[in-house]
Amino acid sequence: MAYPPRVAFIVIACIFLVYVPDLISGQIRYSIPEEMEQGAFVGNIAQDLGLNVQQLTARKFRLSSDDGGRYMKVGLDNGLLSIRERIDRERICGQEGMCTIPFEITLENPLEVHRGKLEVLDINDNSPTFRDSTIALQMSEAITPGVRYRLESAEDPDIGINTVAAYALSSSEYFSLITQRTEDGLIIAQLRLDKSMDRELQSSFQLVLTATDGGNPERSGTAQILVTVLDFNDNSPVFEHEVYRSSLPENVPKGTFVMKVKANDLDEGPNAELTYSFSDLTLRRVQDLFSLVPDTGEIRVEGSLDFEEASSYSLDIQAVDHGSPAFTGHSKVLIKVTDMNDNAPEIKVKSTTNKIPENAPPGTIIALINIMDRDSGENGQVRCEVPQNYPFRLHPSSNHFKLVTSETLDREAISEYKIPVSAWDLGYPSLSTNKTIQIAITDINDNAPRFPERSYNIYVTENNAPGVSIFAVTASDPDLDQNSSVSYSFQNSYIQNMPVSTYLSINSMNGTIYALRSFDYEELKTFQIHVHARDAGVPPMSSSTTVNVIILDQNDNAPVIVSPSAQSGSAAVEIVPQSVGQGYLVTKIMATDADSGQNARLFYQMMKATDRSLFTVGQHSGEIRTARNILESDPTTQTLVILVKDNGQPSLSSTVTVDITFLQNSTERVAESSNLVKNPEYFSDVNLYLIIIFSCTSIVFLVIIVLLIGIKCKQDRNITQDYISPSYCYKRGDVQDTFIRRPAMEETLRYPGTGRVVRAPELQQYSVCLSPESAKSDFLFLKPCGAPASQAQC
Description:
Blueprint: H1 6-16, E1 28-33, E2 41-44, H2 45-49, E3 62-63, H3 66-71, E4 72-74, E5 80-83, H4 89-93, E6 100-107, E7 112-121, E8 134-140, E9 148-150, E10 164-169, E11 175-181, E12 187-193, E13 204-213, E14 220-230, E15 238-239, E16 243-249, E17 257-260, E18 263-264, E19 274-278, H5 284-289, E20 290-292, E21 298-301, E22 312-321, E23 328-338, E24 346-352, E25 355-357, E26 365-372, E27 382-385, E28 392-397, E29 400-405, E30 416-425, E31 432-442, E32 455-461, E33 469-472, E34 486-490, E35 494-495, E36 498-499, E37 504-506, E38 512-515, E39 526-535, E40 542-552, E41 560-563, E42 572-577, E43 585-588, E44 590-592, E45 602-609, E46 615-617, E47 623-626, E48 637-646, E49 653-663, H6 667-677, H7 685-723, E50 729-731, E51 748-749, E52 758-759, E53 767-770, E54 782-783
Parallel strand pairs: 1-7, 8-14, 16-23, 25-31, 32-40, 42-49
Antiparallel strand pairs: 2-5, 3-6, 4-5, 6-7, 9-12, 10-13, 11-12, 13-14, 15-18, 17-21, 19-22, 20-21, 22-23, 24-26, 26-29, 27-30, 28-29, 30-31, 33-38, 34-39, 35-36, 37-38, 39-40, 41-44, 43-47, 45-48, 46-47, 48-49, 50-53, 51-52, 53-54
């Protein structure tokens, strides 16, 4: 039969096209005829779902089903569902009564999943065909009219009205065609003998069997029937049961016994010997699953049964005798396959978010999971969960599960999750499936920079070089990228009423602190700064720390002589009575050192002296005392060079020169002469004369001496006016006058970081007074200064 023109095919396709979606059980349903051209219109799915076409691209509108995506596609610009490639219903669904292709439409932001089905309608694109072009039959001439012969059925892969609908036989007076429809809906053609045959008149007959389908236009196929007339075998085999039924669990092992069929033939001899086989009504794939023993009729399992592929099988068994011609008997075997729990659940992640911010609130959807089990009943009922120690939970939603967050996430604690999803069915034994969903936690700026310490104490030695690094602070930020990029700066603060930036600078990248000037311990001993650390997040976060800078002293100051001060810019002058004894305090050297600690600890020693045996210097006190009595033979002027040095490393020192003048006392010599006169052992007659002579001479000399003394006293008054006040009081230790009282000194010893102040004890003061009589004679009368006015006018 000739195929219709392509134009007619298109017209037929348009007739079968159903555009209106069928919303059944929440699904979109479209129907199209098979064999539509690529790009053919299926439906406006965006309009049917009530979606905004302008938002399809932004919401990642897509066809997510594997099967549907193979045969269909959607347009993001118009939301139309169209054919991707030609669909052959027979190749996809075979002889199934309804052929549907499931598909899913997925959108994001917000997440939506719409399920749909595309029903592929059959068109009459296949003609009935016979397996063999010639059907050979052998009939005994003894066969009486009315005997029927089963003819080979034509095959048409189409379904419904498009499959084989009728058979026709070419005209013959001996034969007619009888058709009947079975429980399976198949049409069986039988050749009926209407008139007895005579092999001697006609030994064979040629007939034409035509099979037509119910399509429009109809299609047909033909086969030649060759009837050979033989001598008679007048009984056909008859099975004990017209229909045999059995039940088998799926996945039974190969070789499992199913049943045994048995047919009886009333003939005897070879005409009653039977051979069992599958008839041509048994599909080839079914014949591959079962085996039939020709001699015994035993049926065994030959392949793997799968309930999910077919829940039942139909076997058409024929028994052929060995007569000539052979007779055939037919029976049907129906095998029901029972489901076993042989399929583990399948986990399919339909839509997932690979990244989620750490501040996502609980309940945020991570993924949409579809779990299927091909088994049925309890074997197909599925449970699903994630471990309790993960901050995620599964919530059932229609035929899916939503994977959502159950608590607040923290990227700094866990930056990535590999979430194990477990699914198991309720069969026995239960089967399970695991799948891992990987989720990365993205960072937000939720951590401020942190310093290891709230405050730092750093020590900087004075006289440091400007521009050198003195310290480095580092703040850590557990965030990522720019959220962890830390910059450093000084907070607004002042050092000695000057901005901190005049003293220090800080590297904003690494927190290194540099000194911009040289520090002087004597001017600045300690100060405090505040370092501010700020990240680059939005909004930025910050923290601060305190840095206490402590200046350490260096021995950079030499001792300074405070007392006695040099007169005339060269040396200090001290006047000491010649009559003083050993241990007499001549003067005390007082010096200060601007440094602190050991650098300010002073030592005194004598460098040079006119007579080293005459004076001693206290190593720690600086007191100059007489080491022995002053002799008349000692020079009246003594020069001492005193060295004052500190205890620093290296040590610094200063020197002071002290000139000491001895004042002679004439009254002591007169007392010695009077003692000689009173001694009686010196008197005798001769001596008397000598005494008189010497007395006269002495008188003369005495007059001269008086005159000299008068002159000397006048000179002494001039001298004493230069050294003493009108009160004739000498106070030792004064800077301007040797005998003027020196003010009490207070020396402070400073130690870095302690704040202790150690005061030196008040210096001892010594004073002498000259009586008015001493100004008139060579005798020097000494008394403590500060005596009552009635005793001495001081």
